[in-house]
Specification:
By secondary structure, the chain is α/β, with parallel strands linked by helices. It contains twelve helices and eight strands. Helix 2 links the parallel strand 1 and strand 2. The longest helix has 17 residues. The chain starts with a helix and ends with a helix. The mean pLDDT is about 95.
Length: about 250
Amino acid sequence: MTLSFRHRLREGRPLIGALLQMPLPEVAEIYAHAGYDWLFVDLEHSPMEARQALDIITAVDSRVPCVVRVPWNDEAHIKKALDIGATGIIVPLVNTVEDAKRAVDRCKYPPQGVRSVGITRAQRFDLDFDGYMQRANDEVAVIVQIEHVDAARNIDAILDVPGIDGVFVGPFDLSGSMGKPGKINDPEVQQAIRDIIRACEKRDIARCIYAHSPAHAKTYLEQGYRVIGLCTDYITLARAAAAALKEVRG
């Protein structure tokens, strides 16, 4: 049974996840066994395709919810990610009210949206069609990615769009759009992040963010974020490999 990420968001407890960019179900299983609360399956900044995302979701979604970041805010990518069984969608570069409305519409079946009906894995290949159609709008999480200064300026209007369950802050792209690429600890960048948090708190919308290290994750939890995407699998492997080699060589 696929676990609902939207229901976990509503619980309000901290959820620590990992970003998966390696197109390998074994890597997802490692994180599931390690006890992570959710997995961020990245189709935007990785070599992964929908077929490989399907293999990952099939391997672990009975143990840990899998949320897919689509490459773009378009119907084709969103419906394919949902049909393979994603329990949530992260939509990149949502900068305006219109962007937010498109994201919600494409994730929800009518009358709440315009998602078209496919009969594939999410519907258990027609064996659970009626049940899935009844549950989907309530179980699928819609998360908009706020990663540009324009989105930060429009945050109140964006979050007033019905159907948004969470905001995922991209601090690196946000810093770049503010003319401070990579300077995520810059006071102006941090102030913009705090403003986004406050807007989410006013509406009881889940606050999600990418953390580049455990130290960043702890800081974000203290700031009020409750959903953390902790590093990518590539970064975690690279750091562990470099540290191991350094230890051996002294």
